[in-house]
Amino acid sequence: MILKALYDYYHRCGDLAPQGWENKEISFIIVLDTDGNLIDVEDARSDDQKHGTSFRVVKGVRSGTTPKPYLFWDNVEYTCNYVAPNPKNTPERQAELQRKASVKHNALVDKFKAVASKYPDNKAFKAVCLFYENGGLEKLYAHHLWQEIIKKPTVNISYRLDELDEDEGCKIVAEEEYLENEVAELSGDKKEENQAICIITGKPCDPVDSNSPTPIPGSQATARLVSFQVNSGYDSYGKQKGLNAPISREAEACYTTALNRLLGKGSRNRFIIGNRTFVFWGSSNSEASLMLEDALAKELNGFGYDLDETEVDDPNLSVEAVIKTFQSIYSGKIPGAMTDRFYILGLAPNAARIAVIHWSDCSLKEFASNLLKHHEDMEIADRRSDKKPSTGLYHILRAIAVNGKVSDIKSNLPEAIFRSIVEGRPYPFPLMQQVILRVKADHKVDIVRAAIVKAYLNRMDRTRQKQLTVMLNQEEDNIGYLCGRLFAVLEYTQRKALGISTFADNYYGAAMSSPLTVFPGLSKLTLHHLNKICSPSLRGYLKKISYEILATRPSFKFPARLNQEEQGEFMVGYYLQMGDLYTYKDKETKEEENNEENNDN
Q1: Which of 27, 37, 98, 370 is 20 to 30 A away from residue 576, measured at CA?
Q2: What is the pTM of this model?
Q3: Higher pLDDT pick, 241 / 342
Q4: Which H or E element spans position 464?
Q5: What distance separates the 2 farthest-apart alpha carbons in the chain?
Q6: Cα 55–Cα 60–Cα 65 angle in degrees, nearest 5
Q7: What is the spatial distance between Cα 25 and Cα 466, in angstroms, rounded to a whole number?
């Protein structure tokens, strides 16, 4: 299913490299004349020097220990016979690495000569061979860009003739049309005895022995999504390598090219959580699929992983636009929303292979519905003036991380939270645990933490008689919720009476877990605080709220202990009641200002 979905994505895109070719970043280009003399070295990197220029080159595949150079492009070790010195290596070890590099380099030169001999009229192929025959590497080592090249020996290098027609532009040797014949020879089915049925297309084929690399961050450069061990118990019925799961050359080229496009730098269809890499795509080019991909990319902007939030002029408008898109897809207003599929693939590095750690395949409507449910579950009263987005995965993780350092959180928790969001499942239990731990440590319940608890409890049991509401619910009689409300009133009273409040810092954790040990003493202190409040209306309002909270539950008694669910309800009740109290403060201030204006008049 995964391979077939990637295969279809290749054909959906329409602009991906054809079979036998791939788009690769070339960082430096060796400029030669027709006699193979070094003219110059071009720096093809971007302004930030992090990426090279993308060129369409012959696809290269490496496996095993035998050197397998690419056609007129490769890394510094192959093209320049260079190994970076390592002070940790012994002289013998460094010499051995240099010997292996020389073997690779010689294999590259021999391959170039073999191709050039097939096309004696091609000036570019001949010039590259002459460059190596005439000692061109020595001149390259003396070039002023050589020190830049060896800073990162994994970058790719290619070649270009200095004598080009104007219409040829910056064409490199690796793009030569003559190489089409080499690609056809490498890509065509051999029609030998190893005929099988391709597991992707269902058509007869001569299967590939090994699949092309599709590396992800943290993996080896040769890591593959599909690979086989030899003589390790995986050779079923005597079949080896690709014959265990036969894939045609055409299908292999399509699915690997599609996956590399999704994984490519700058891809809006990719995001990273810890050492996990996720890619997503729709099944067609319908308006609904394209809009959902774009909406999820913007949603991930809120998640805060691949995009910088500061790039968004108004993050609130961005979130609103995303939610409207989800709503339109869910309702079926956009063409394609009812029939297309949406895929999310999660990958993790695993030695020389890539492990699939997540795969979801659902309709666009179902996927949009799950994201809408997340936003709905996380919605809670917001008393902040800027009302910044608070429902993204990044905001959730920052709320539970020590000192807000998301990078310190182990990747399995973010991954579990993400799965809960996109699959509409209950949020993971450790999420609730982490919120409680951070609140007890920081003595602070902000909007994100309150929203997390509300969403967790409501999604944990949809059959609850009373779901926690977005606004303060004065009829909620859960003991944890009531204790949280009452603690907010006590803290607010102290602040209004003394100008400061020490209740939260000194007693919040104890009040949340063991109310009976804290509330009786705090209630006595609050009586003294009430007498110090100058405003009679505010004093009367706070007394009224306290009585209403206690009267909500018949024969109200402070419990000795609150379980985890009740502690969560304590936090939500506290947060919502505190917001309601500050709303009253704003109303009172406005009334006083109006009275002063009337008196002045």
Answers
A1: 370
A2: 0.77
A3: 342
A4: none
A5: 103
A6: 145
A7: 57
